[in-house]
Amino acid sequence: MGAVTYPDQDVIEFLAEQFVPFKVNVKDLDSGGRALVAKHRTIWEPGLLYLDARGREVRRNVGFLPPTEFIADSRVALGKVALLQSRYADAQQQFRQAVDLSSEGGVAPEALYWAGIAAFRIAGNKKLELAERWAELKERFPGSSWWSRADVFLESDLTP
Predict the structure, then answer these.
(1) DSSP symbol at 105
(2) CB atoms near residue 30 (< 10 Å)
(3) pTM of the predicted model, to two decimals?
(4) CATH of the domain spanning 9-157, picked from 1.10.10.10, 2.102.30.10, 1.25.40.10, 1.10.3720.10
């Protein structure tokens, strides 16, 4: 990540606009770093932790991400924060941007799943709205674990 993703100009600008980034070198920890790693149970690197303003973890990713996937993954984190703050339109926008950026095998299926939930909340918890939004997830990623989660919900809990 340090050689490819973090030096990327788009990543630098995105992080500066959207986050307060910090880096912990797990090979050279002071007592504060050890406490942080222990608190968040970081077990592999690179480990990306997305924390809200109160320091609560909202998303985690482990392993290398190329620049565009890193930004897409980060947009999912921003969307989840917006969902937690009941800013559903903002959440939906972040998730849609993540879908647009992500490769077919990347974070796109998850972002579509969460975009459906944001649309569901915007529509006043109307399940038919959720089903309509998840239609894209079904069409594009029918074999994904995210579609499996949506499909089970829709089959078991959706009533017209």
Answers:
(1) T
(2) 10
(3) 0.83
(4) 1.25.40.10
